[in-house]
Amino acid sequence: MLKLSLRSFGARKLRVALTLIAVALGVALISGTYILTDTINKSFDNIFTTASKGVDVSITPRDAIDDATSDGMAVSTIPASFLSEVERQPGVAKAVGTIDTSNVALFKANGDRIGGGGGAPTQLSSDTPPPFSAVTYEEGRAPTDMGEMAVLEQTAESEDLKIGDTLKVVGAGPQTELKLVGIAKFGGVSSIGGFTLIITSLEQAQQLADQHDSFSSILVAGDENVTPAELRDELRRLDPPTPVNVRTGQQQADQNTADIREALGFLTTALLVFAGIALFVGAFIIFNTFSITVAQRMREFALLRTLGASRRQVMGQVIFEGLLIGLIGSVLGLLLGLVLAPGLRGLFKAIGADLPSEGTVVEPRTIIVSLVVGTLVTLASGLAPAIRATRVPPVAALREGAVIPRGRGARFVTPGGAVLAVLGVAALAAGLFGGAGIELVGLGAGLVFIGIALLSPKLVPPLAGSIGRMFPGVVGRLARENSVRQPGRTAVTASALVVGVTLVAFVSIFAQGLKATIAEAVDTAARPGSLIVQNSALGFPLPSAVATGLEQVDGVTSVSSVRFSVSRVDGVGRTAVTSVSPTLPDVFDTQWDQGDNALLRDLGRDNAVITKSWSDSHDVKVGDELALTTPTGEDLRLRVTGITDDNSGVFAPITVSNELAEQAFGERQDAIVFAGTDPADEAAVKARVDQLLEQQFPIAEALTVQEFKDQQSGQVNQILALFYVLLSLSVIVSLFGIVNTLVLSIYERTRELGMLRAIGTSRRQVRRMIRYEAVITALIGATIGIVMGLVFGIAVTVALEDEGLVLSIPVAQLVVLLILGGLAGVLAAIAPARRASRLNVLESLAYE
């Protein structure tokens, strides 16, 4: 039986190759994801380990809320006075304070911004003396005086910077001109994940960060008589003025690596989800391929049974073939992942996330998971066809035109599909409306897909009949009837495309709704004539001096700044906080459930307003008192004076005054600033604001309400494009499914095609018939997918209606998606149609 299986492979090279491709593509994204993330993690590990050489103990600020980095804009620091206390401790040979902050921006002399895009920050670090320095200078020297700086080698090369160039840096205040005196590597590498690193002297860094009396960290080297662990334990006995973490240099490097791994965890999860989708689509193709080949080899199996082979042996042969295809496809997918990993890195680099990847890391886990998942999926997909292969009595199967009978469970397929679809809908509802979690949403979506796939044979005849009417004449009728002849086969082939189209349609609907939500919220909240000032590197803060400068601009009637922070609320836990200026009502229309704009003018140090959704979730009412802890460790008790019902995104669950945020939360920089103007004079005022920002704060940009909406839509479109690229793999896999089915059906219909040619059908007509069949199948999948995408999109929108999400159907995009589905069918049919038209008539009539 082993020899027969191997010979079967050799006799059906094309069929085997197409199935292997389906398995390999699904596995490739799994292996590529693991290779990419493992390589990135290893690269960061090497960088941090190299950077920590010479550091025996590292002292860093600790967030008083939960020992983590603040979610807000505040930069936790260590008072400079603590450095003297550290230096006096026994065993300390040397200790230095450092400045590290990402609240800076770098510009060329002509005003062009360097770095800061795609989420990769610009980092300011003070130069450290030996033995702590992780920086080596490839050109020039270390910055030692005020007005000097250095950058990493990759930045210098990509921006064509040279020693002696004058650059502009914006930190906590107006821009400062610095001279480039050094080009360096950090931890032995020329780039750190797309970061733009600015290196200056400690004094210059303190000025730029406005940290004249504090440090971002303290690095300690011990004398030869003490180990790092002993020195760490000794320094932990000190009583610092603010909470700190005291770790050995290696522990700090490990912690930095762990932080990076956690930050990149979402990337691994997201990519594996897309890999699972591709493999899920591949499972439909594998099942369909085995079903068709088993039916085509029925007489072969019957002859084996007649010659004495048992049912168990026949089934074992089919399962062995599936095992072999699964293993070979998984190995190919693993190898393809080595090529795909750099491609994925390039994809993220294209959107600004230049992730480091020194070498290629292939962990044993990557090999094991790729081989096991690919093989098991293939075996599971081929199990049902293998069982069916043993069901036909040998004598019956040897007859001309014999077909495999329906299995005993065939009558349960339709009701089973209905049950699975209902269970899937219930799971989706529980996940979306019951707060059961995203895992249940994923399970529900999977059950709905499988249920629809089982029900789809009932949908094929009416859909094929309706779609097929687009193709007139005898050829169109033949294509229509061929699609309906094997509804189960057509349904499974279309189902592979359904998954990808559904997700594309859903993402398009959700993105369109998100853009509509943003536009509606901005139109409702922002006053006419308001300018919105933000950091041009989105997600980073603005110096507080920006708001002060705007107040001096002629024509600006009111200025209000918004800041973001975090707190730990008793009985609730970590909770986001917004702080606002008393002037916010002058430029912003807040929607209220209880209260009015006057409450925002009188928040002071003792009051807070909360959002309606947070109020309902935690049963907090007006008049209640909130007990919370700030990132700086201060305990506050605030009285709730109002409840907002605002969906603009400005208001976090808790809103306090900027005065309190600065004094108790350590928030000294603004997230966004609103500047009010007379709508009739908006253009002229904006021109004056732009001039101010260009001269003093090039880190900032001023946008009108319409420009802000357009920018937000652009961000959504960028994310949408990334989703489309990742989903395209599942669509490509499904196209291979259409090709596979058409190729196999041509083998099956060889005599039929020969008969058509014999009675006068031209080669062109045969090609057209195969193309029509492919288009019908693709449009069936696209139609079902678009409908399911609409259902999922509407369900998610309804579930998030309380969060302000607006339903907006991108009709034009869905029509384009349907057209692309048809074009995909045309492309998939090219090779099979040519093959069918080239069959020899006489050989086809004699084919068995």
What is the count of β-strands?
25
- Helical content stands at 55-70%
Class based on secondary structure composition and strand pairing: alpha+beta
This entry's quaternary arrangement is single chain
Q: Please compute the radius of gyration using only Cα atoms.
A: 33 Å
**Number of helical runs?**
26
Q: Report mean pLDDT, rounded to a whole number.
A: 82
Strand content range: 15-25%
Q: Give the low-confidence spans.
A: 67-74
Would you give an account of this structure?
The strands form 4 sheets. Strands 4, 5, 6, 7, 8, 9, 10, 11 and 12 form a 9-stranded mixed beta sheet that branches. The longest helix is centred in the first third of the chain and has 48 residues. About 1% of the residues have low confidence. Helix content is 56%, strand content 16%. It is an alpha+beta fold and 848 residues long. It is globular.
Topology overview:
Elements lengths: L1 H10 L1 H39 L5 E5 L16 E2 L1 H7 L4 E7 L1 E2 L3 E3 L5 E2 L7 E5 L8 E6 L7 E5 H7 L6 E5 L5 E11 L9 E5 L1 H8 L4 E2 L1 E6 L5 H8 L8 E5 H48 L1 H9 L4 H40 L13 H25 L5 H4 L15 H21 L4 H31 L4 H13 L1 H39 L5 E5 L9 H7 L4 E14 L3 E8 L3 H4 L4 E3 L3 H4 L5 E5 H7 L6 E5 L5 E10 L9 E4 H8 L6 E6 L4 H15 L3 E4 L1 H44 L1 H9 L4 H37 L11 H27 L3 H5 L3
Parallel strand pairs: 7-12, 9-11, 18-23, 20-22
Antiparallel strand pairs: 1-14, 1-15, 2-13, 3-14, 4-7, 5-6, 5-10, 8-11, 9-12, 10-11, 16-24, 16-25, 17-18, 17-21, 17-24, 19-22, 20-23, 21-22
